């Protein structure tokens, strides 16, 4: 009898939850519930965004439907309380789950698979190696529920051979992530300022910050190696910001700029790096000063921007997809604007 009563109670609770969910989804008036209204509006909008991104994946010739979806995403994320809304938090979880699934199932034959994660985080995979740039769990947003949970991040770390951290800011450097790489015997390359007062500092690889000097970085317990030029970038006048150019065993190269926005002296190496070293893909911070000059300096085959919609920033510096399109208007180099969790298969010419 007790078991029967328990079953009835559980059934009624589940039925009530379903009714409440259906009632909420069909609710036509939200008077007096502004936050509920905004969350539901975001949920519907983000649902359409996901549908459009699935139908129209990244491509050089962007259909109008995809660009509209990217701008709709801006509209949701450029609202003061966006990171605190369940609909936005769920969207991030879904996008990261999509990337994890692809990472676990994707083998690369030719070229490279590239995943854009949160903020300026990227993972690059070739036939022989996989490495990440600025992987973080989104704690910079300071919103409970808006984050990449440890389990999900651990699954991405499992897929990688090395991590590159551009500089010390929280939206680019995550201590837990770095320690997880090191615990697996995987190298973490970072600027000297990153966690300089923490015990982890001595375990991090600090490559000399010299343009055009090639370093050998052993990975996969010495079975493979990456060649790295650790360019001496800066954010502003005084924050050290590594700009690594990473060469894979297949001969492809990938550069991520972190928050490169340094003094005029940095242009000395930026203006000439592409003429001295071939660059396949450049991952610039979308807000970097004079992005066209940066592209001309690196001379990449493809540009994939990062740093759009960093939710820890104020709205004016949260950076939007529409601004990236505007900034790159007229670029002679092909470029792609990706949403969180999207991937692109790059095949060199």
The coarse overall form would be globular
**The level-1 CATH class:** Alpha Beta
For the residues shown, what is the average pLDDT? Answer: 94
Instruction: Tell me the β content.
Output: 15-25%
DSSP strand tally: 13
Structural class: alpha/beta
Q: What's the number of helices?
A: 9
Q: Quick one: biggest sheet?
A: 7 strands, mixed
Structurally, how many domains make up the residues?
A: 1
User: What is the CATH topology?
Assistant: Metallo-beta-lactamase, Chain A
Evaluate the radius of gyration: 22 Å
The stretches of 5 or more residues where confidence is low (pLDDT under 50) are 4-14, 16-22
Physical arrangement of strands within the biggest beta sheet: 6-7-8-9-10-11-12
Order of helices and strands: HHHHEEEHEHEEEEEHEHEHEE
**CATH superfamily heading:** Ribonuclease Z/Hydroxyacylglutathione hydrolase-like
What is the CATH architecture descriptor?
4-Layer Sandwich
Question: N-to-C terminal Cα separation, in Å?
Answer: 72 Å
**Fraction of residues in H or I helices:** 25-40%
How would you briefly describe this protein structure?
35% of the residues lie in helices and 19% in strands. The protein has 349 residues and is α/β, with parallel strands linked by helices.
Secondary structure: elements and pairs:
Elements: H1 2-25, H2 34-55, H3 64-77, H4 86-105, E1 112-116, E2 122-125, E3 130-133, H5 150-158, E4 162-165, H6 175-183, E5 188-190, E6 214-219, E7 224-235, E8 239-247, E9 253-256, H7 267-276, E10 279-283, H8 291-298, E11 300-304, H9 321-327, E12 335-336, E13 343-346
Parallel strand pairs: 3-4, 4-5, 9-10, 10-11, 11-12
Antiparallel strand pairs: 1-2, 1-13, 2-3, 6-7, 7-8, 8-9
